[in-house]
Structure formats: structure tokens, C-alpha cells
Amino acid sequence: MKNNVTPIQGSLFEAGYLQRSLGAISNEPLVALTELVANAWDAGASKVAIVMPNRLDERLSITDDGIGMTRDEFYSRWMTLGYNRVKHQGKYVKFPLGRQGRRLAFGRNGVGRHGLLCFSDEYQVSTQKTDEAWQFTVRALSGTQPFGLIGEKRISSSEHGTKLEVKVDRNLPDCDEVREILSIRFLYDPNFSISVNKITVALEQLAGFIEQKEITVDGYRIKITCVDSTRWARRKAYHGVAFWVGGRLVGDPSWQVGNDLVLDGRTSPARRFSIIVQCDEIIDFVVPDWSGFYPGEIITNIQHRVAEFADSFLRRVLAGRAKETKASLLRKHRDQIEKLDVLGQIEVSEFLNNVADTAPTINADALEVATSAVINLVQSRSGISLLAKLSKFDTEDIEALDKLLDEWSIQDIFVVLREIDKRLNVIAALDKLVNSPLAKTVDELHTIHPLVTQARWLFGNQFESEEYTFNKTVKKALEELFQKRIDPNRLYNPRHRPDLICLSDSTVSAFATEKFRDAGDLVEIDAILIIEVKKADKVLTREELNQAEGYVEDLSASGLIDGNPKINAYVVGKTLDNSLARSNERKVGKQGSEFGRIEACTFDQLIRTAERRLFRLRDKLQSHYNDIPALDLVRKVLSEPKQPPLDNTN
Question: How does pLDDT run across 137-150, given as a tens digit for each residue?
Fold first, then answer.
């Protein structure tokens, strides 16, 4: 592509364009001043003197003894937006004659130099590199130029370096805040000092050294230094994991390292330790205002490895503290622990050991509460209640239990009984809700309907598979077909049951299985189960079966679902009228290639079928389930915390 083409129309710039494009550098005075000090560092300065005004309309200046600029260098560097410092000057600082050292330059994108626009639209740059000194006046513009040089003149000067001056029209900074932020942002270097209104900024040194380690991540060498920040940091801003590049802080220290939370910042260990991470090689990943890193795999990997090291370090240094806390808690709860049996005492001790190993930084108060809870839990299941029940067993019960334990573990028994109990609860709840006066008063939409649609096993063992799940594609297709029949106001919390579609007189729930296509790697819908539950007193007629047949046909031909799934649809109501006495089941499609099946059934039929599948266990355990109120059974099955209370539920 040719670069010397003359455009028909060039770019235009709105007033304030440059300030907006610079972001925090031109809007936040502390960020702006940090960037301008960083520029002095890049110029090889050993001293930076900042003079701060006390009020608006007074002048702010930043003077350094760096290498300075010639007139040509000012034109090519300062006046170029997005100036690539590394490309034109290299990544290391060049010092004035007579000064030596090795210093990594912070600048990369040529934006920090315009920090004075934070305070006014116009500023001056006075600089000397050789035997000539110049003063330039720069102003933010609009129209064809975002900024420009509006004045220059030769000045007399006897020292190399650069002085920036601006009359502060806005964003007047506070001297103490400036000193504080600069002390945080730059590590101590004996060849670099900063003063604000003639008071030297105390750049921090890494006192309180505990240990140091070097790691390599994706080829980048990372130096990690762990310090006791009570001997180093003067304020909490230092606490946490801090990334330093070239002696400058990136972002703010935090115990949240990337996606990993190393430590709760409110705990005493968080206020005691700091972890300094130094790697000059990752400077190209630092965002222009040094508020953080550009996201990417390399930075994510480095942050994760650093978080792992920080977690390991804290576990080691706090192991002794955790043991002391454990011993203190054991002494405090000695009387309660001595009353436990040996197994209970071991359980409490193991709990405290696990906490010491897995969460050595846990707050002492939180551990105290947890320990009390564990002791109470162990006491509640110490065996006294079980012994009382066993003492009431007759000989036959004890013999039956003995045989059972020969073949089954307690855990196996519990799993099986819990599943059986859940299914028996469904049967008992349905029976009580639809076959009692309660059916006329119960909130059926939030009890009967979810109860039936959640228990797919009622319609056949083949639908019990975990592969049958709520499918958004099928639901969306059904909503498209039902459209105006949907009543959005019937379900008070749609997010709680996203599988339900509420119609004016029924509730529809759809489940589906998926499979990989015979050819290719894509999945498609293999089978669909649709359950339409009518009101508890609804008499099903041929019209309901016709409706179901219609939406099965429409769904299959809609083009809204992928694959060629087999569709099973059930319509459930109170009773069947004469028209369905002998024809309550239909198949959809040509003989031999049916793609759908519709069946009308009653609540009683579902209950009887389920009881047969469960070997009529409910009859044998009749007294157990008869004593439980209907809505308690519903809540137990659905775990529905918002089910409204009803009277006369027995």
C-alpha cells in the first residue's frame, strides 16, 4: 500500500481530543505527575525537583538534571504522538556525560510527556542538551491538529536537563498526596531522588527481608522477595503482592493476583506481609498509565505461578501460628472435649489439623466459631440417640439389622433409602394433593405441576436417564409455537424453574437428549420428552389430545430444532372423558417411521404405575407417609423455599 497518497479530506480533531485520548494521564493529577517523574528517570536524571502551587492560577514546575533534548530531538520526539521510544532510542536509558549506570526506561508509547495537559491546555518545556537551550510552548488544539507548538525561543542556561512548567487551571494536587504516591510508585535507587517543594520524597527500601526466590515462567525470569511489611511499609497500600518493573510499581499491591485470591486482605497476616515481584522483561505488557498489565496468556501464567508461590510461602510462615491457635482452642474447650468419646475427640482434633494445613491464614474468631460448631455436631451424633433407638428394637428387628449389615455398608443403605424415600414422597404428595379437598385450595402451579414435571421416572424408566435435561433450544421452539397461549404472569419466579412454560390452563415442561451425528463432530437432538400438566380438576377430552398432536407435528416440522428427534408427549389431568376411553394414545408419522407419540393419562394412573414400580412399598410403609402433611412432602421433594403456607394440609 502506498503511503504518499494525498487524501481528499484529512483528519479533524474535536477540542479536547488529546486529553480524552490520554485517559487518566490527563485527568488524574497523581497519575500525571508520576508519569512526568518517570520521563525524568528515562532522561537519565539523578534529581527531580517538583514545585507545587498552593492555589489555582499559580505555576507548577518539574525540573530534572537529565540528558535534555536538542531542538531537533524535541521536534521529532516530543511533537510525535505515540512516539516509539524503544524503536528510536532503545529500551535502556542514556545518561548525561560524566554519569554512568544501567537503567531500564519506563517509556514505551510517548504519552506520559503530555501529563501537564492535566492542569492546563498550555505548558512550556525548557531543555538543554548541548550548548543550546530552548523554551517551547505547547498547546492542545482542535481542527486539523490535536496539539501544536505555538512558540519557541532561545534561552540561556548553564546546566543540561529539562524543566516543565504550567499554570494550573484545574486539578490542583495536594503536596502530601504527591509525596505519598511517588514514594509508593518508585523503589529506592541511590542514583535517583525526588523532592516536592524542597522536601525529599522517601523512596522505600526493602527492609524486613524474609526470603527470596527466582522462578521462570514461559521463559521470563521472575524474582520474588518476601518481606515483613511491618518493618517496611508505612501504609496499607504496600500490603499484598506487588509487581515492580524497572523499579516502578505496576498497579496497586493486592492479595488478589489475577484470578487467584491468595489471602483475605482484612486478616492480620495480610497486614503483616508483602511479596515483591520483580521482572523487567515484562515491561512490554504494562499498559501506558502503569495501572496494570495487558491481558494475555503469559501474564495470566505469571500471575498464577506467583499466586501459588505466595500461598506456599504463607502456609509455611504461618504454620507455627496455626499450631498455636489450635492448642489455644483445645485448651479453651477442654471441658467439652473431655466429655466426648475417643472417636469424637479424634474428630475434633483432625478438624483443627485440617484447618491448620489447608487454611493457616483463617481468622482466629472464625476458627473459634467453627470449632464450637464441630464440637456441638460431634456431641449431637455421639451415639446416645442411636443407643436409645437400639434398646427399643425387638429380637426380629435386631436380627434383620445384623443380616443387613453383613451385606451392606451404612453408606450404601443410606443412599438407597434416600432415593426410595424421595420417590415415595412424590407418590404420597401427588395422592394427597389431587385426591383430597386440598386440591381445590392448593397453589397447583407451584406444587402439582413442578412435582410431576420434575419426576420424569413417573412416565417410564427410559426417561429416568440423566441424559434427559432441560434444553433451551427445545423450550425456545415451543415458546415460538405457543406464542399467545403463554401466560407470563403465572410463574412468580421464572428463573427458579426455567424449564416450565406456563399456558392459560396448563404447564408444559420439555426435556431432551443429544447425540453426535453419525457423520461429523456436531451434536443434534436425539429425543424429546414433553410433559403437559393440566389443572388438578381438569377432565381430558379429545381436544387436549388433538392440541398435543398438533404441537408435536408443528415442533417436528418447525425447523427450529436440529436433528430428527423422537418426540414423546404426555398430557396429564384429573380424568379422561368418554371420547378417550379407548383411544388415549396416538402415534404421529407414517407407519413404521413414526416420529412422535402422544398419550393422555390421569394423576391416579401415574400414582398407581409408580407404586407398582416401587413394589407397593408405600402400602407397607403407610403410617410413615400418612403422618406427613402434603405440602411438607412437596417441599421435601422440590426444596421450594418460597412455597406459600396453606392451612388444613393433613
Answer: 999 998 888 899 99
Q: Are residues 502 and 542 in the same domain?
A: yes
Condensed to tens digits (0 to 9), the pLDDT of residues 527-581 reads 999 999 888 888 999 999 999 999 899 888 888 888 889 999 999 988 999 888 7
Domain limits for position 69: 17-200
CA–CA distance from 188 to each of 151, 193, 368, 607 (Å)?
A: 38, 8, 42, 79
Co-location of 538 and 459 in the same domain: yes
Q: Which of 309, 335, 369 is the last residue of a domain?
A: 309
- Residue 437 in 3-state DSSP? helix
The CATH number covering residue 270 comes to: 3.30.230
The reply to whether 572 and 445 lie within a common domain is yes
- Indicate the burial class of 196 (C-beta count within 10 angstroms; 0-12, 13-18, 19 or more): buried
- Spatial neighbors of 577 by CB under 8 A, at least 6 apart, are 539, 540, 541, 542
Distance CA 197, CA 166 (A): 16
Say whether both 196 and 213 belong to one domain: no
Q: What are phi and psi of 61, to 5 degrees?
A: -135, 150
DSSP 15-26: TTHHHHHHGGGG
Q: How far is CA 363 from CA 260, 272, 353, 374, 622, in A?
A: 19, 14, 15, 17, 50
Same domain, 116 and 242: no
Handedness of CA 169, 170, 176, 182 (dihedral sign): negative
What lies within 8 Å, CB to CB, of 623 at 6+ separation is none
Percentage of the residues of the chain whose pLDDT score is greater than 90: 24
Torsion of CA 559, 565, 567, 568, to 10 degrees: -160
User: Model's pTM, two decimal places?
Assistant: 0.49
Domain-embedded: residue 360: no
Three-state SS annotation for 468-528 = CEECHHHHHHHHHHHHHHECCCCCCCCCCCCCEEEECCEEEEEEEEEEECCCCCCEEEEEE
Distances (CA, A) of 140 to 9, 120, 541: 22, 9, 80
**Mean pLDDT in residue range 157-177:** 90
Pair 552, 612 in one domain: yes
Place 649 in a pLDDT band, splitting at 50, 70 and 90: very low
Q: What is the pLDDT of residue 166?
A: 94
Neighbours of 183 (CB within 10 A): 19
Q: Distance (Å, rounded) from C-alpha 510 to C-alpha 472?
A: 9
Residue 222 has pLDDT above 50, yes or no: yes
Span 250-256, mean pLDDT?
A: 87
Distances (CA, A) of 148 to 120, 128, 144: 14, 20, 10
3-state secondary structure of 422: helix
Please report the pLDDT score of residue 381 as a whole number.
58
Task: Select the more confidently predicted residue: 357 or 193.
Answer: 193
